[in-house]
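Worked example 2:
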Amino acid sequence: MIPPQSTSTLVSPSSAVTPSSERQQPNRKLILFNFGQQVLSGNLPIYFGVHIHSIQHIYGKTTIYSSGKTLAGIAHIDDHEITILDLCRYLSNQSVAEVNYLIALRSPDVDLLGIPLYESPVLVEVPPKNIRELPTSYRHLDYLGVANQVAIAETEEGTQTAFLLDLNRLISLMIQSVE
């Protein structure tokens, strides 16, 4: 007797369609930085970061003009006026001693927003699974609430937890520092 023909098609695991949620997503490129020993968690510097698509340019040594009464300042670079946010001062009550780098960020409400740094920022690639949203309750309770996400990244110094900055929150900080 001849067995009946099967009308179903077998699919091997290698040829199966993977749901979009399980597909390998490309790593996210982030720029990470810290403020050295000025902003600490225990004895370790706290790392901050921004998605690379938010960065307009990273400049070297820059002069910043500020009254010193608010978190805001201004820098004149090439054809640009860059509004400066002294994030280090917000986090530690100390300004960056010497501005060796300036990260200029694209922002929806301000032409360019700059964050002064003493140490060189680093480029890292982070798998999407290593980037998580910070709880809203935490963002309202801690000064690190200037971040909306946290990333676990590998650097030359080892595994780092970096707080990814929320540009809209940074702008509101500047406005609040004037009021």
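The CA atoms of residues 52 and 142 lie 25 Å apart. Residues 1-18 have pLDDT under 50 and may be disordered.
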